[in-house]
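Minutes, project check-in
Item: structure for the 128-residue chain
Input as provided by the requester:
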Amino acid sequence: QVQLVESGGGSVQAGDSLRLSCAASGYTFSGYPMGWFRQAPGKEREFVAAMDRYGATTYQLDSVKGRFTISRDNAKNTAYLQMSSLRPEDTAIYSCAKSRWSSGTLYILRQKENYDYWGQGTQVTVSS
């Protein structure tokens, strides 16, 4: 069965960096785009970043552009989210997700309804 397992979250200070990992199994990882979403307390889950099957085309939420980088290693079946210059407003549970489609534009990939499998999430807490 499909499994997505995130790791790498933690509690950091503003300005610090973290790298989240998402280990995938149970399907052909290289066949699907991947996305990262986050959910802060009392807020809806929001799109953070996504990439195509090869990691060649990436999309980011405007507020994380220049600070967060999404990437993947298809040989390791793993997706990453490198986060730098972290801010208190980045505090949330971060989850990776597998696209239900084999390709997609930003319009498609930023919508959580277009993902069919999700990890359990990893907590990121940024203090000022």
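Outcome recorded: The first helix runs from residue 106 to 109.
No further action items on this chain.
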